[in-house]
Write a structure and sequence with these properties.
Length: 285
């Protein structure tokens, strides 16, 4: 039972890391960046090559963060910059950008799953169950980054101006704020975040380019469950969803684990469409 709980928390942590990235660009730039999951998986594959170069772990993570930051800024420049304000065309353009990132990943590393080993994994006994160290790292990451990004967005001038331009872009521009640089900053933050956490995600899963499709979809479910704009709500919702998936798979069967996620999603849409921790009207400032 404890082993299933740890597995559920680590799985939920992966979904939470995706939802956190969605929330950053949503609350800071007013854009739901569907290419974020693809960028995160790309970061894991960059780490796969970097381990072959014999680099130490801190330098591997720094390399992944730097490259993914450039990729994410490139997505903003190519898929967002020239779109008219007031529409939702970014849902299509960022999805297309994500598809292009996955295609490039397949061209460089191939379509087959691979194994990423950043460090040695020796299972340890904890609270009556067995867990590998990387799962503990995954559980800690969304808590640390979720709280940190919450404080950045809610407690700094950058966060205030970013939320203002996401709420009313024209009014923010009239106050002399360079909204273009704010948007670039939000995408740069999520790119660096994807590069830092992507390697740990791919250590815990099969390193497959197609992983982005699954985690992107379930990350969106976590975003809806936690409430748009709520980083802390997203963290709680992600862990809850991972536990539901793991325990359903344990008690009923592995076949039903994935289905339970979407059953929860449908129930949330029907009973509480603003999410567990959101409000009916998303006010960012």
């Amino acid at each position: 039972m404890s082993t299933a709980v740890f597995a559920g928390l680590s799985t939920g942590a992966i979904y939470t890391l995706i939802a956190i990235g969605y929330n950053v660009t949503l609350t800071s730039a007013g854009v739901l960046n569907f290419a974020y999951a693809n960028t995160l998986v790309l970061g894991g594959f960059i780490a796969l090559s970097a381990t072959g170069w014999g680099l130490p772990l801190p330098l591997i993570l720094l390399t992944c963060a730097a490259i993914c930051t450039l990729v994410s800024v490139g997505v903003e420049r190519a898929a967002i910059r020239f779109l008219p304000s007031g529409g939702h065309a970014e849902l299509i353009t960022t999805l297309g950008a994500g598809t292009a990132i996955t295609a490039i990943t397949v061209l460089i590393w191939g379509p087959d799953p691979q194994r990423l080993a950043l460090y040695e994994q020796h299972p340890i006994d904890l609270l009556g169950g067995r867990v590998v160290p990387n799962n503990l790292v995954l559980i800690a990451l969304p808590v640390v980054f979720g709280v940190g990004l919450h404080l950045l967005i809610r407690g700094t001038r950058f966060g205030l101006t970013s939320r203002a331009q996401a709420f009313d872009r024209e009014a923010t521009m009239l106050r002399g704020v360079n909204v273009r640089w704010l948007s670039i900053g939000a995408f740069a933050i999520t790119g660096a975040f994807a590069g830092l956490v992507g390697p740990f995600v791919l250590v815990s899963t099969a390193a497959s380019p197609w992983l982005a499709i699954t985690i992107a979809l379930k990350g969106f479910v976590v975003l809806a469950l936690g409430g748009l704009g709520s980083q802390l709500g997203t963290v709680i919702a992600g862990f809850l969803l991972g536990l539901v998936e793991s325990l359903v798979a344990l008690w009923i069967g592995p076949f039903y684990g994935d289905y339970s996620v979407f059953v929860v999603f449908v129930l949330v849409l029907l009973l509480r469409p603003q999410g567990l921790f959101g409000s009916r009207s998303l006010r960012l400032v």
